[in-house]
Structures are given as C-alpha cells and as structure tokens.
Amino acid sequence: MAKKTDDISVEEKLRALYDLQFIDSRLDEIRNTRGELPIEVEDLETEIQGLNKRVEKFENEIKEQQGEVTSKKELIKQSKTLIEKYKSQQDNVRNDKEFSALEKEIEYQDLEIQLAEKKIKEFKARIEHKKESLNALKEKISELDGHLNYKKNELDNLINETQKEEEFLVKKSEEFAKKIDKRLLASYQRIRNGSSNGLAVVGIERGAPKGSYFTIPPQKQVEIAQRKKIVIDEHSGKILVDDDLVSEENAKMQEIIKF
C-alpha cells in the first residue's frame, strides 16, 4: 500500500523532489532543443492571419468600388435614355418655353453623365490602387506561408524525434509529483518557475550549491547530509540535497528513463 504524502520521511521527500527535478530537467532539455521554433511558428501564423484579414478587407472594398462603378454606369445609361426622350419631345413642342424646359433637362442629364464618368474614373483609380496593394499582400502571404511550412516541418521533425520520450517523461513527472505533498510541490514549482535554468533542487559541489559561488557553512552541510529537514539556500532560494543522494538518485533515474 502506497504511503500518504504526509507519512513519508524528510529523506523520502527529498528523494522524490530530486527525482521530479531530474525528470523536469530532462523535459526542459528536450523542449529547449526546439529553441525559438514554437514561438516563430506562432508569430508567423499570427502575422499571416492578420494579413489575410487585410486581404479580406481590400477585397470587400474593391467589390464596393466595383458596385459603385456599376451603379454610375447604370445612371449614365438612364441619363442617355432620358436625353433621347427629351430630344424626341422637342420635335413636338408647341412653343419656345417648352423647348427651353426640355433643353434644361437635357443639360442637367449631360451634367449627370459627366459627373458619373468622373466618379467612375475615381472609383477605377481606387480599385487599381487597392488591387496593387492586394497583390502585394498576397505575395507577402505566399512568401510567409512557405516560410511557415518550412518552420512547421522543422518543428514537427524535432517533436517526432522526442515525442515518445517526452510523453513518457510527462507521465513520470506527474507520478513523482503525486508523491510530494501539495505545499512542498507548490514551493518546488514556485522556485523552479523563478529560476533561469529551471532548477529548484540542487546538489552541493565543493561546498557550494551547484551553480553558486556562495559556500555553505560546515554545520549546514552536516544538516543537509542528515536529511532530517528541508534546507533552503539563503542566496539562491533553492532546495539543497547532499552529494550522496544526488549520486544515488541519478543512477536510479538513468535506469528509469533509458530509451
């Protein structure tokens, strides 16, 4: 029957913590081999998504402008029809007043045609400008898509190389975490998250915590070796374990994670 986390000794807690650190450090190594690739892939996907939204915006604006051109062409057509109608009516007027009234209507429709033709030119110029911008955007997206596919393949290959080991280690990390009481596990995770190298549990090298130049007093080194209390390094804030425990657990963990 498995011991409850409250029932295990300090030494067992230290071993469980070190084992968890060993597994998590190996996971860090695997994930670090991917470098900045995951971030690069995510950034490229975000950039492409933003550019595609701009493409959609330009395409909608072009459709609107084309709709305006069609509308103005229809207006010109209607104006020409009216001009023909008014000219025909001029042949049957009874006096100069009626003729002049029709002449004004013809002039008005001529102005409508001129204004519509001017607007059509403006709309077409805008359409051409937007099409140029749209083509440039599509070229940029195509270029980024190629770059993204290359980066994704590179990332997928790296993931595939270590996927089985990573899945195994994640499972083991969860198993070892269950052996540690919640408060101690929370402290471990807090220290680990605050560490630049992800280390929360370290051994002692030449009288100092691994990676530190601050020497540990002899009395404290004795306390660490006795494994009767959790000792925190006052400078780095890391949990300290003795060399013998490190050697023993390293040998054991190397066997567990053999691939």
Explain how this protein is built.
The protein is mainly alpha-helical and 259 residues long. The protein has six helices and five strands; from the N terminus they run ααααβββαββα. The strands form two sheets. It has a three-stranded mixed beta sheet. It has a two-stranded antiparallel ribbon with strand order 2-3. It has two domains: 99 residues, no CATH class; 126 residues, Helix Hairpins. The relative contact order is 0.14. The model has no long low-confidence stretch (mean pLDDT 92). The radius of gyration is 39 Å and the shape is rod-shaped.
Helix-strand blueprint:
Layout: H1 10-32, H2 37-90, H3 96-177, H4 182-193, E1 201-202, E2 204-205, E3 208-209, H5 218-226, E4 231-232, E5 239-240, H6 243-256
Helix pairs in contact: 1-3, 1-6, 2-3
